[in-house]
Amino acid sequence: MAWTRLYDEAEPQRVNRWLAQNGVCSRREAEALISQGLVSIDGQRVDDVGRKIEPGQTLVLSDRAQAQLEGALTVMIHKPVGIVSSQPDPGQVPAVRLLTREALVGASPVIPDFDNRLAPVGRLDMDSRGLLILSEDGVVAKAVIGPASELEKEYLVWVDGWITDDKLALLRHGLELDERQLRPAQVEVVGRQQLRFVLKEGRNRQIRRMCELVELTVVDLLRVRIGDLVLGDLPEGRWRPLTVAERSSLIGLAPR
Hints:
Largest sheet: 9 strands, mixed
Protein name: Dual-specificity RNA pseudouridine synthase RluF
GO molecular function: 23S rRNA pseudouridine(2604) synthase activity
CATH topology of the largest domain: Alpha-Beta Plaits
InterPro entries: PsdUridine_s_RsuA/RluB/E/F_cat, PsdUridine_synth_cat_dom_sf, PsdUridine_synth_RsuA/RluA, PsdUridine_synth_RsuA/RluB/E/F, RsuA_PseudoU_synthase, S4_RNA-bd, S4_RNA-bd_sf, TruA/RsuA/RluB/E/F_N
Helix content: 10-25%
Number of domains: 3
Catalytic activity: uridine(35) in tRNA(Tyr) = pseudouridine(35) in tRNA(Tyr); uridine(2604) in 23S rRNA = pseudouridine(2604) in 23S rRNA; a uridine in RNA = a pseudouridine in RNA
Pfam family, one: PseudoU_synth_2
């Protein structure tokens, strides 16, 4: 089904700008779709890349346009400890090297090679494990790690040290990193020396550094969810491509 959305803002706006603001595609991608005749407003094909959409009008992306946008590869992998997300130092193994045919769960339209520009979308440090997204889709990257992202990232964290109510209160709201106040976090005890963190930001080694500030030492960290995308039972070291529905959920493109 073609992607359809009613323009309900107060003022007219260029089509490419509106699509980019809503995370559908970049402005350049929108202009390319218009040039190919794949965008229409109220049933009329849009031919001018500078065209504005008016309040109350309905924009439609054709099935072919959707297929082009969804063609950029995005995968999820269960990253093991000891694997780096990207930019390895000598002797280190980057996560993209695990994307082999043998490690694939299910089917994939392609097996990544050197032609794929897959980059980590929300890194995990080498000592952490769990859900890692690799993508060549800029829209997905913006939705997950862009400055306006509100997607939750959920972690299970095993720690050494005394867990007290005062420490939990600080972890939830009261800490600074790099002289900047952290956003509120959900933190709860879920097992013996085990905490559950839900964050909406991703500073460098954030959870480990937060725990250090309250005299807790992280001994294991597992990311289990990003937005609605869950690690589930994907085995460690294995990967699979995201489905169209999963991509749509991440970028907030459920049809309406």
